[in-house]
Amino acid sequence: MGLSGCKTGKDKEASTASTASTASTASTASTASTASTASTASTASTGLIRNFKVNNIASFDNPWAMVELPDQRLLITEKDGKLQLFNPRDNKKRPVLGVPKVKNEGQGGLGDIQLHPNFIQNQWVYLSYAESDPEFPHLLGAVVIRAKLDLLNNNPRLVDIQKIWTQVPKFTGSGHYSHRIIFDRDGKLWISSGERQEFTPAQDMNSNAGKIIRLNDDGTLPTDNPFQTQGEIAKQIWTLGHRNVLGLAFDYRQQLWAAEMGPQGGDELNLIVKSANYGYPIVSEGVHYGGSSNTQPDFLRHADRPEFRAPELSWTPVISPASLIFYKGSVFPQWKNKAILAGLSSRSIVIVDTETRPVREIQRIPMNSRIRAVIESKDGTLWVLKDKNLSPFNLVKIVPK
Ligand SMILES: [Ca+2]
């Protein structure tokens, strides 16, 4: 604690990040030929089919995440604490009642949302958000709750709320919560837990910050997690050494991938392997914000410390990955089984082929906006959330042309 690092608003996830600095990063990314990934990507895109168009749909207040219900309505989280039920058939939205109070500050607020794999039977929805400590309100941390979504009356609402996970310890800063949640095919719940801009918790087994967490669907501990002899917190942990993982997704082979925001440079796409250490804050392909004026020790590179698992792909200049899915549909055959990342500072959607070695970026779709989230609809089209309210339509849909 007390390490200042990159808490000064220069972090690229920060919703307060200046448009100027993100724009300059973006233009660097699209024009510079210094980064092999960026130049490869732009060359590759020109040869790819553009069989899609982007339709403007609706507007939300600082949207952060979304999930599609079985009837194709959307649940969309807004950072200040509202959960909106959106019906694409009539473009009407209606707030879901009963959402717990969130701490809307810095990068924190209402965060991710997922449905239980058996949602149709049990109506469980899972939400992550930032909270203040009830006793020491200056201390903040992420939590995950589950609740039954009651859609039977005219006022949709959450009932039977259970808090099933808490980030520990809480810190004074309001960054790097991560708090992405996802289910696997076996019904296990996975949570990305950011290092809270405190660096060292990512290597501390008494903290669940800077880790990827695996739990049963009710928040209890699976007995086959890898760290069973290093205390109670460690029993939640699947992997360690993470910075700020905002994207978690399973590919068609059920391998887990994580998209991690690097510091200045060094965004990462990691293949997640049980008990592996991904090296933060010891190694990174980036540098600290502020360069030599930063008081943190310089990062080593992943190649310097082979005991840490290196990313399958890293980006410098950065893309600022905010979400990750693998495309399963057939509407856009060129993206089948490819990773699709939302890019904040790159103002783009980034397509990655994870089947090739090395893993490589194959397409970058310029969106002229910071992209916060991309999900696949049941019909194979893509729902996209642009960041903040800078566009009159920040929910858009990518459909066939
Ligand atoms: Ca790493």
Can you tell me about this structure?
The protein has 401 residues and is mainly β. The protein has one domain (19-400): TolB, C-terminal domain (Neuraminidase), CATH 2.120.10. The protein has three helices and 24 strands. The radius of gyration is 20 Å and the shape is globular. The relative contact order is 0.15. Calcium ion binds at residues 268, 278-280, 283, 311.
Strand order of the largest sheet: 1-24-23-22
State the secondary-structure class: mainly beta
**Span between N and C termini?**
51 Å
Biggest sheet descriptor: 4 strands, antiparallel
Bound small-molecule species: calcium ion
**Fraction of residues in helices?**
under 10%
β content, as a range?
35-45%
Enter the CATH topology name.
Neuraminidase
Name the CATH class: Mainly Beta
Tally the structural domains: 1
Helix and strand sequence: HHEEEEEEHEEEEEEEEEEEEEEEEEE
The DSSP helix count reads 3
Detail the poorly predicted runs: 1-10, 15-46
User: What gross morphology would you assign?
Assistant: globular
Assign the CATH architecture.
6 Propeller
